[in-house]
Amino acid sequence: MRLDKYLKVSRLIKRRTLAKEVCDKARVEINDRPAKASSNVKIGDKLAIRFGQKIVSVKVEDIKENPRKEEAASLYTVIGEVPVPRDEKEEEAYIKGKE
Question: Pick from 63, 81, 86, 99: CA 20 to 30 A from residue 70's CA?
Fold first, then answer.
């Protein structure tokens, strides 16, 4: 499934057009690689989404074309949330310290 559609059906992002814009601004990564809106999402992939002042990491658990509102949260598991570093040096230091 396309990344922008997955973000919408899983309700991580409310609208598909917004999901596409977020991807185009390089704010989404799949398995630690920048992803485009057309990137393919598979079960087991790890997504990192930058929302304003935090980065949310999730693991793809399931893929459904049209899940119900109640099923949407079961499509992923939140791995963690971290605050966004203020500059690139701070971000690199955080990533190196995490590995």
Answer: 81
Best CA proximity match to 62, nearest among 39, 49, 43, 45: 43
pTM: 0.80
What are the tokens at 41?
């999402």
- Edge-first strand order for the sheet with 46-51 is 33-34, 28-30, 46-51, 54-60, 76-83
Give CA–CA dist 48/6, Å, rounded: 13
Instruction: Assess if CATH 3.10.290.10 describes domain 3-97.
Output: yes
Confidence of residue 84 (pLDDT cuts 50, 70, 90): confident
pLDDT in tens, 66-77: 999 999 989 999
